[in-house]
Design brief:
By secondary structure, the chain is an alpha/beta fold. The protein has 16 helices and 23 strands. The chain folds into two domains: 4-215 and 394-471, Metallo-beta-lactamase, Chain A, CATH 3.60.15.10; 222-388, Rossmann fold (3-Layer(aba) Sandwich).
């Protein structure tokens, strides 16, 4: 049997926007429907019309709840999808507060942008989805268990495998038209808990993530991670500053809170005040705690405090000697941004980045040493120290990905590498290519369609978007403009006199007029 195709609507040549359309045996299956994050050009894709007909989707399979995999599910149903969405029980419970928060942020952003003077007379922005669309999604969510084989029509079936990334995360096997496909989802460190050893391996085609495909990370014990966190906090508190920790609401926040709880319990760290300034993270923490026993009672610790409203959040800006944990993990939205405006100019404060920073995000700009950034219309000088807080990643590194791939061999058809920046994709392809008997790797471009053959290499059916290369570049014209603006301001400030500054501005104006 043949006639199976896969189209890459996201996470192709870039890290985010996971969305893959599989067709075969009269069925159309969507794996994930995530949001694009990163450069402004990538984020703009979220507001485009979906590049497929939502009404013909027969089933949606969700690998896990992170927004870059689930963030456009409600938009899918707002656009007419009637299919069932299948996911694990933890994912089903977590995506509701995640998407409700995303809808709230969209509504606030749309209102703010539509009020801008330069938008006068232009078509208004509208949110991708609202509460009614989220309700449509949840009416169609079906919970599945790891290892169970689930039947669709025409002999098509699927199975969820443990992916060890976050609670409820899965790799997804699809059996369709005589072929066996495997989508890795996001792969966590360590070996997965498998259903039965005899069922592992022997796939026609494997679609594997590559987030950390270009690097191996030094193993950091939990005790070492906690010691590093304690030292950062002690240094900053002693200097009279604040510690800011941008953290994703799901998994990262819970891990950091557990570390603080352990440090306080062991008395390694004095009971400084830790504020979780994220209503979403509070809801997600409650949901996550139902699915794992961490042995901690952090929710009852008096110096770990949950901020309940905006007024309480603003009060934190008048305090010093505290720790603030807030979303988002890449500083692209949420309450962390107004804390950054307040604290980045302070030499005594410190920003601790606890996870992967997608190119083009504010987090990546700060990580790379920017001395001035623009946040919510404010030009902010960066004097605070910026440091990476290692040891919290839930992604396998290069060696871990290679071992995951080896465990799934033999792969008789193709190995597609997705969900990575260009350097990570190229590096992992080179590493895997040196393994004997491994099929040639394919790095698909955004929008490409490939025909899948049983036990043979896939063949390209149609090219991707003509702007795919520009969209997946690490920096777009907007980020380059921001960098140029900063450079111009620094050059102007460095001039000895106002007359010299006037000459430079005149030269810049002539250069623009000559274009």
């Amino acid at each position: 049997m043949s006639g199976v195709t896969i189209k890459f609507h996201g996470a192709a040549g870039t890290v985010t926007g996971s969305c893959f359309e599989v067709k075969g045996a009269g069925q159309t299956i969507l794996v994930d429907c995530g949001m694009f994050q990163g450069t402004r050009s990538l984020e703009a894709l979220n507001h485009e019309k979906l590049p497929f007909d939502p009404k013909i989707i027969d089933a949606v399979l969700l690998t896990h709840a992170h927004l870059d995999h689930s963030g456009r599910l409600a938009y899918l149903y707002a656009s007419g999808c009637k299919a069932k969405t299948y996911c694990t029980a933890p994912s089903a419970d977590i995506i509701k507060p995640l998407l409700q928060d995303a809808a709230k942020l969209q509504a606030a952003d749309v209102e703010r942008r539509n009020r801008r003077a330069d938008r006068a007379g232009l078509p208004p922005f509208t949110p991708l989805y609202d509460g009614k669309d989220i309700a449509k999604l949840h009416k169609n969510v079906r919970k599945v268990s790891y290892c169970d084989e689930n039947q669709l029509d025409n002999g098509v079936s699927f199975r969820f495998w443990d992916a060890r990334h976050i609670v409820g995360s899965a790799s997804i096997e699809i059996n369709i038209a005589g072929q066996r496909l495997l989508f890795s989802g996001d792969v966590g460190p360590g070996r997965s808990i498998n259903c039965t050893a005899s069922e592992i391996g022997g796939y026609d085609h494997v679609i594997c993530e590559s987030t950390y495909g270009d690097r191996d990370r030094e193993l950091i014990l939990v005790s070492e991670r906690r010691e590093t966190l304690a030292r950062h906090v002690e240094e900053v508190i002693a200097a009279g500053g604040n510690v800011l920790i941008p953290a994703f609401a799901l998994e990262r926040t819970q891990a950091i809170l557990e570390d603080f709880d352990a440090l306080f319990e062991s008395r390694r760290l004095a009971p400084v005040n830790v504020f979780l300034d994220s209503p979403l993270a509070q809801k997600v923490t409650m949901a996550v705690m139902r699915y794992r026993d961490s042995g901690t009672d952090m929710l009852k610790r008096t110096n770990i405090r949950f901020i309940q409203n905006t007024a309480e959040s603003k009060k934190l800006n008048r305090m010093t000697g505290i720790v603030i944990i807030a979303g988002s993990g890449m500083c692209e939205g949420g309450r962390i941004r107004h804390h950054l405006i307040r604290n980045l100019p302070n030499r005594q404060s410190r920003l601790l980045l606890s996870g992967f920073q997608v190119a083009g995000t504010l987090g990546s700009v700060l990580r790379d040493g920017a001395k001035r950034v623009r946040i919510s219309g404010n030009d902010v000088i960066v004097k605070a120290q910026v440091a990476m807080l290692d040891g919290y990643s839930n992604h396998a590194d290069r060696s871990g990905l290679v071992e995951w791939i080896k465990d799934r061999t033999p792969i008789s058809g193709s190995l597609f590498l997705v969900h990575g920046e260009q350097s990570a994709l190229a590096s992992l392809a080179e590493t895997v290519g040196a393994i004997p008997d491994m099929p040639a790797t394919i790095i698909p471009a955004l929008g490409e369609t490939w025909e899948l053959h049983k036990a043979k290499l896939a063949t390209l059916m149609s090219a991707g978007r003509p702007d795919a290369t520009d969209l997946t570049a690490s920096r777009d014209w907007i980020s380059k403009l921001a960098a140029l603006r900063q450079e111009v301001e620094e050059k102007l400030s460095a001039q000895p006199t106002n007359q010299d500054r006037e000459k430079m501005l005149a030269a810049l104006k002539r250069a623009l007029e000559s274009v």
